[in-house]
Amino acid sequence: PVPCLLIRDQVLEGFLRFCGQMGSFSDGCSSVALTYFNEIYDHMSKEFNAKNVCHMSGACASRFHQHEESQEIEIRPMGGVGIIKVESEQSMGDDIPCKLCEQLVDHLRDLLIANTTELEFKQVLEGLCKQTKAFSEECLNLVDQYYEEIYSTLVHNLDSNSACFMIGVCPKGLNKALDGPIMPIVPMRVAIIHEQSSAPRTPPKKLLGENE
Predict the structure, then answer these.
(1) So what's the pLDDT on residue 175?
(2) Which residues are CB-contacts of 59 (< 8 A; sequence separation ≥ 6)?
(3) CA 142 to CA 122: how far, in whole Å?
(4) pLDDT in tens, 103-143
(5) Where are the chain's structural domains?
(6) pTM assigned to the model
(7) Would you say domain 94-169 falls under CATH 3.40.190.10?
(8) Are residues 190 and 34 in contact, defined by beta-carbon separation less than 8 angstroms?
(9) φ, ψ for residue 126 (rounded to 5)?
(10) 144-161: average pLDDT
(11) C-alpha span between 13 and 197 (Å, rounded)
(12) Do 166 and 15 touch, CB atoms closer than 8 A?
């Protein structure tokens, strides 16, 4: 299993690289990600589970929508999510979870494009902001200013492999954009707080003869 600290670092790196694709909002996005990363990560850890993702993608509709004559209703998987050709499955080996993750991300992006207008997307973001407690007010202000850029980035620049690497499912190196340095310009207080929170904690040195 991958250590939790390594997963946290990968998620933070993924957020910062995603922020780097947001044009004039990239530095502001990085500042928000660094300032509130603990809250964001904790919320993802609680809510990012199979049930919620399945419901959001529409792939498990039969579990949530019951019909009296369900035997007469044919339910088909949406967008081929979860379907991998036999020949490619044999050649991928241990990369099957990565490919499934990429399929799901592509499917969610297609759903966003097909079923959600910019205004509806803003309403979704506002709903998410209201769940972030101390970050709620600032989050709502950011959504009000930048939801168009966020929507455009998700529609045009969302890379499925990068997203799956960010959550620790896919290996690094399949996208050259992941190899470059990350150098956002953030306020001094944000940089100091991040350095303090990410610095390795070493136990205090014991004095000679302390336990004697």
Answers:
(1) 53
(2) 77, 78, 81, 82, 107
(3) 11
(4) 888 888 888 888 788 888 898 889 888 887 777 888 888 88
(5) 1-57, 94-169
(6) 0.57
(7) no
(8) yes
(9) -65, -40
(10) 85
(11) 15
(12) yes
